[in-house]
Amino acid sequence: MTSSSDSGRPCSSSAKSQLKNIASPLLTAFDQLRAMAAAGTITTAQAKEAGMNLIRTEFYGNKDYFFLYNPKYYIIAGPPALNKIIGVDRSKVQDSAGKFYPRDIVDVAMKNGSGYTDYLFPRLGSTVASPKLSYSYYYAPWNWILATGVYIDDIDQAAAAQLEKEKVALGQSFDQINFSESGLLFVLDSDGKIVVQPSGGNVAAAMNSDWGRSLALTLISQAPKASGKTAHFNDLAEFRGQNESWSVDVSSFGKLGWTLVSAVPQAEVEAPGNASAIQQGLLSFAVLILGLLIGLLSSRRLVRPVEQMTHAALALEKGAFDPVMLDSAATRKDEVGVLARAFQKMGAEIVQRESKLREEVKKLTVMIDRGKAQADASAITETDYFRDLADRARDIRNDFSRVEKP
Questions:
Q1: What is the DSSP string of 150-193?
Q2: Intrachain domains 13-152 and 175-296 with the same fold
Q3: For residue 6, what pLDDT is reported?
Q4: CB atoms within 10 A of CB 34
Q5: Which CATH class for the 13-152 domain?
Q6: Which helix (H) or strand (E) holds 130?
Q7: What local confidence, expressed as pLDDT, does residue 368 receive?
């Protein structure tokens, strides 16, 4: 699978999963067209032409599109904007960084069944190359390589817009957390800059001074590296225009590179009852951060159970299936959980049946071996030679008996 990035920018697993999911309906449509051709409803040529028409007319996202290659690196179908390169050998085409990306798009699909390629390519109607990530799939029945791609800039912009929206919502939520009359709750990034502050506050202005920047670096250095842990200390600060002692708690959120800071004037901390209020405030914020993380990572959360079931299916095929492999996915309450539980039960039954079958085969083998031994013994005792020996032994015993009598 191609994984290098000429643009120097990583492609998220979420973006890759989205591309794969976007292409799935077209593959299903190809299967349906092929089934119609097999049933005689339409000819194979008509089915292929209908499939190509889908490629020419289907768009999604920010004018993103699909295209078809054949194994010889020719584009055989795509949107009208690609008409000038349809039917042209693309094996020697390179992007501005010198990458033979048509080869990679075709080769990764032909070799692995599907895969991803990143390269530089102009948007429709533009001559300026932009970083792009493509997903390609080898549709073996028709010897087609289905491909589609998105521009990394679009992914970044969508993610940045969503993050800014969540920051605003988080800042507004800070206003609802009242754990002290003069308490402050804000978030710093790894450079010590304010990322989130209460919508009604002005912490950023206070932290923009020399002492504020120095304090920010101190707060970041004091925060535990492990998420979920909190460090407490007292420090002098001028949040309210005067130098006074503040009680400060800091914690880290490694995935986002953020440091959560809650600060309360020491005088208020020493007042009865404030300790439990601070803990409640931090707990409320932790819930908010958890919600943010869930929102940002939701696509990954949805894809993971499907990957678990894929691994379980491969394990079942190799005879290494263990129902425990699907315990995590089976606890879900949605349709994915129902599918995981059904697969888990089916896999366990198959493993059990195979185990019983092996035991029965083993027992049958033992019975066959015993039967063969008995048959061999019977065959020996029934021979003339064996009967003659038995007669001689009987005569000898009789003679010996007569000699012993007086």
A1: EEHHHHHHHHHHHHHHHHHHHHHHHTT--S-SS-EEEEE-TTS-
A2: yes
A3: 41
A4: 17
A5: alpha beta
A6: strand 129-139
A7: 57
pLDDT at residue number 117: 93
**Tokens (6 digits) for 47:** 């089915």
The per-residue b/e assignment along 313-333, b for 16 or more CB within 10 angstroms, e otherwise, is eeebeeeebebebbeebbebe
Amino acid identity of 258? W
Question: What is the sign, positive or negative, of the torsion defined by CA atoms of 18, 20, 24, 25?
Answer: positive
Listed by start position, the domains of the chain span 13-152, 175-296, 298-406
3-class DSSP state of 230: strand
Total residues found in the chain within this entry: 406
pLDDT at residue number 111: 96
Sign of CA dihedral 200, 201, 202, 207: negative
User: Which CATH superfamily is 175-296 part of?
Assistant: PAS domain (3.30.450.20)
* Per-residue confidence (pLDDT) for residue 8, from 0 to 100: 45
pLDDT of residue 259: 83
Rg, Å, the chain Cα set: 37
Residue 216, pLDDT score: 80
pLDDT of residue 384: 65
Q: Is the dihedral of CA 124, 126, 127, 132 positive or negative?
A: negative
Residue (of 105, 107, 127, 129) closest to 116 by Cα position: 105
Q: Cβ atoms within 10 A of the Cβ of 385, count?
A: 8
Copy the structure tokens of residue 186: 């804000």
CA atoms of 150 and 62, how far apart (whole Å)? 8
Distance CA 312, CA 306 (A): 10
Cα–Cα nearest to 344, from 333, 328, 355, 358? 328
Rounded Cα distance between 146 and 108, Å, is 12
| Collapsed DSSP state (helix, strand, coil) of residue 119 | strand
What's the average pLDDT block by block, 10 residues per block, for the chain (406 residues)? 42 70 90 93 94 91 88 95 92 92 96 93 78 93 93 66 61 56 75 70 71 80 77 77 79 73 74 55 58 56 64 70 75 72 75 72 60 58 63 65 55
Token pair of 163, please?
């993050």
